[in-house]
């Protein structure tokens, strides 16, 4: 049909029956709502209406002596579709822009309706609003479902969730790693914890795979250096605490350092570069235990003992199961250093009644028992016999009877083969 180029938006108002030449029927399952409109506005602002009001459209309905266009929509889209019709009537000096939307949900709903009706000005305004404002988690999920199907004109909305190039990601990872292994003021410890959690998540394999792979040499070299600085800080703290094990400020720093080491071990495990960590822990193990044994028996110092045991358990597990290969002399050293401490800790923890302390759970005790059995059985038979002889003098935790059975069996087999 003919449009009216001489008419302007400003001279026409929606639902003005005197000047209207088009009826838009908004139809839902239960509603049939008529909106009196003007073809020159609809054709200019909407591809949907331009097509249906063109001379090439095969059917032209007439209602109240006017052309009629039906728009079918769901009930929950009705208000948004009606709102779009009103937006089309904005005067030319007050075009549709992002300021017309007040929340993400409304803008997203209007965007979908505007996309369906082919209203580029409204689509652009919705996209500009969504691109500029923060999203709640559930809103982001809905945006990610809707926007990708709408083409490049709304692409900028997704800029904040697009993957970055690897070099940028590596730079961010290394920057966060340097902070996560530093010793910031206490006020920044929560931020440091967040950095550690997210770094761990970046290396975690999930349904989408890790953000970073462990085979990048640049990352490995920098991570190793960061962990080396962490171990250097541990050495300094241990040296200081050997002189004064009651220094409360130093003990707090020692506790934070142990927590960092526990996290660092898991990072290195995912990157399969544990060797340096294990060697450094082995070299300082004896000094750590000297400090721990000098600590008084109270709530905070018990917690420090538990944290030491956590790190030691991870290191012993790596040695016992071949994640890090050490010669027999070093495996024997680690067994002799840590087995007495673990036995003392079990006895101590069993006597405690501090509800505030994170008591070691049964799973940890079972892990340590299994680790020591495996570790002992990798040693030369004479070293096994020495350790088991000492254990039989007080056969309490850990239960090494399985190691004893295996030693007996191997000894019989070895004698028969002579």
Written overview of the protein:
The chain is mostly helical and about 425 residues long. It has two domains: about 10-160, Potassium Channel Kv1.1, Chain A, CATH 3.30.710.10; about 165-415. Helices cover about 60% and strands about 5% of the residues. The protein contains 16 helices and four strands. Strands 2-1-4-3 form a four-stranded mixed beta sheet. Helix 9 (about 215-245) runs antiparallel to helix 10 (about 250-270). Residues about 1-10 have low confidence and may be disordered.
Entry keywords:
single chain; 418 residues; mainly alpha; Potassium Channel Kv1.1, Chain A; 2 domains; 5% strand; elongated; disordered N terminus; BTB domain-containing protein; SKP1/BTB/POZ_sf; BTB/POZ_dom; At3g05675-like
Radius of gyration: 36 Å
What string, H for helix and E for strand, traces the elements in order? EEHHEEHHHHHHHHHHHHHH
**What proportion of the residues is helical, as a percent range?**
55-70%
Number of helices: 16
Shape, principal axes of CA atoms? elongated
What count of domains describes the coordinates?
Answer: 2
Indicate the low-confidence ranges by residue numbers. 1-10
- How would a textbook summarize the main sheet? 4 strands, mixed
**Looking across the biggest beta sheet, what order are the strands in?**
2-1-4-3
What structural class is derived from the secondary structure elements?
A: mainly alpha
Domain BTB: 20-89
Protein name: BTB domain-containing protein
Pathway: Protein modification; protein ubiquitination
Pfam family, one: BTB
